[in-house]
C-alpha cells in the first residue's frame, strides 16, 4: 500500500481549490456546446452523523471528440462520479445531460435504454463474459440494442476486432487471452453500440506500464477517430499525457482543470 505521505497523486491534487488550473465551473462556462454537462452533482450516503459525501457539487463539461482524464487518489470519488454520468447511480442532487437528454430525469427503463444505446463502459477488470468468445462478447452488446440486424452486428464486430488487432483471437475465450488482449476486447465491446459517451474506469490498473500505454493510446485513437466523448478515471499520472484535459478530484471535490503538460510525473 502506498504511503499517503509519499503518494504522487495526492501530491498532485493536494493543492485543491488553489490549484494553478481553472476551476471546473469556470472551465465549464467556456464549453457551452459540450456534449456532456454535469451541473452541481452531489452524492451523499447515509444521514446525520453517518453522512458521507462521495461527490460534492461537481460541475464539468466535456466536448464531443474530447478525451479527458479524471485524476485522483483512491477513494476520491472518481468512480462514483462517472457512475452517475453513465446512469449507473442516481445523484442526491444536481443534473447530468448528454446532448439534449437529461440523464438524471430518466426512469429505470429509460436509463437501461440510455446505457445500452448511448454509453460504452470499460471497467478496470475488463468484466468479459467468461463463457463467450471475444467476438461473442462484442455481439452480446448488439443484442441489447434495437434496430441492429445480425448482419450489421457481425460486420461491426469483425471491423472492431480487426482495428484492435484481435482478428486472430476472435474465437478465444477470455481465459485464453492476455490482460492486454482482454482490455482490447473490452474497448471493442464499449464501442460496439456506437455510443456518444465512453467511460473508462482505471484501464491500466492490472497492466504493466508498457501494456498500459498501449491500451490508453488505443483508447485515445478510437475515441478521436470516431468522434466520441471519453472520460478516463485514473490515479496513474503516467497516462494523463494521452488526454486533452485533466480534471482533478480530491475528497469528492472537483478541484481544478489542467492541461496534461501541467501535471507532474
Strand content: 15-25%
Give the rounded overall mean pLDDT.
Answer: 88
The residue ranges in which pLDDT falls below 50 over 5 or more consecutive positions are 12-18
CATH architecture: 3-Layer(aba) Sandwich
Number of domains: 1
Task: Using the CA coordinates, give the radius of gyration.
Answer: 18 Å
Helix count from the secondary structure assignment: 8
Instruction: Could you tell me the CATH topology label.
Output: Rossmann fold
CATH homologous superfamily?
A: P-loop containing nucleotide triphosphate hydrolases
- What structural class do the secondary elements suggest? alpha/beta
**Number of extended strands:** 10
Terminal-residue CA separation: 19 Å
Across the major sheet, the strand order is 6-7-8-3-9-10
The description of the largest β-sheet is: 6 strands, mixed
Q: Encode the helix/strand succession as letters.
A: HHEEEHEEHEHHHEHEEE
Give the CA-based shape.
globular
User: What is the CATH class name?
Assistant: Alpha Beta
Helix content: 25-40%
Question: Would you give an account of this structure?
Answer:
By secondary structure, the protein is α/β, with parallel strands linked by helices. The protein has a single domain, classed as P-loop containing nucleotide triphosphate hydrolases (Rossmann fold, 3-Layer(aba) Sandwich), CATH 3.40.50. The protein contains 8 helices and 10 strands. It has helices at 8-13, 24-29, 78-85, 108-118, 134-142, 150-163, 179-191, 209-226; strands at residues 36-45, 52-62, 67-71, 93-98, 101-102, 119-122, 197-201, 229-234, 245-250, 253-258. The strands form 2 sheets. The chain has a 6-stranded mixed sheet. Strands 2-1-4-5 form a 4-stranded antiparallel sheet. A hairpin with a 2-residue loop joins strand 9 (245-250) and strand 10 (253-258). Helix 5 (134-142) packs parallel to helix 7 and helix 7 (179-191) runs parallel beside helix 8 (209-226). The chain is globular.
Amino acid at each position: 500500500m502506498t504511503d499517503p505521505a509519499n503518494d504522487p497523486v495526492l501530491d498532485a491534487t493536494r493543492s485543491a481549490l488553489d490549484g494553478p488550473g481553472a476551476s471546473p465551473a469556470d472551465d465549464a462556462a467556456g464549453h457551452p456546446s459540450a456534449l456532456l454537462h454535469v451541473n452541481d452533482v452531489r452524492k451523499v450516503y447515509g444521514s446525520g452523523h453517518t453522512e458521507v459525501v462521495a461527490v460534492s457539487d461537481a460541475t464539468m463539461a466535456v466536448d464531443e471528440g474530447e478525451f479527458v482524464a479524471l485524476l485522483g487518489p483512491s477513494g476520491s470519488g472518481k468512480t462514483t462520479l462517472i457512475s452517475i454520468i453513465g446512469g449507473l447511480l442516481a445523484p442526491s442532487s444536481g443534473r447530468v445531460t448528454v446532448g439534449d437528454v437529461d440523464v438524471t430525469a430518466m426512469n429505470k427503463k429509460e436509463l437501461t435504454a440510455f446505457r445500452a444505446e448511448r454509453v460504452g463502459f470499460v471497467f478496470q477488470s475488463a468484466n468479459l463474459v467468461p463463457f463467450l468468445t471475444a467476438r461473442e462478447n462484442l455481439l452480446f452488446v448488439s443484442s441489447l440494442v434495437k434496430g441492429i440486424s445480425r448482419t450489421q452486428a457481425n460486420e461491426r464486430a469483425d471491423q472492431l476486432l480487426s482495428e484492435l488487432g484481435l482478428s486472430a483471437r476472435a474465437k478465444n475465450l477470455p481465459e485464453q487471452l492476455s490482460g492486454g488482449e482482454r482490455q482490447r476486447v473490452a474497448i471493442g465491446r464499449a464501442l460496439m453500440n456506437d455510443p456518444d459517451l465512453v467511460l473508462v474506469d482505471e484501464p491500466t490498473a492490472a497492466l504493466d506500464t508498457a501494456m498500459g500505454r498501449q491500451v490508453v493510446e488505443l483508447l485515445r485513437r478510437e475515441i478521436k477517430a470516431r468522434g466520441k466523448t471519453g472520460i478516463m478515471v485514473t490515479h496513474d499520472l503516467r497516462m494523463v499525457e494521452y488526454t486533452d484535459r485533466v480534471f482533478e478530484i480530491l475528497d469528492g471535490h472537483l478541484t481544478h482543470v489542467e492541461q496534461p503538460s501541467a501535471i507532474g510525473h
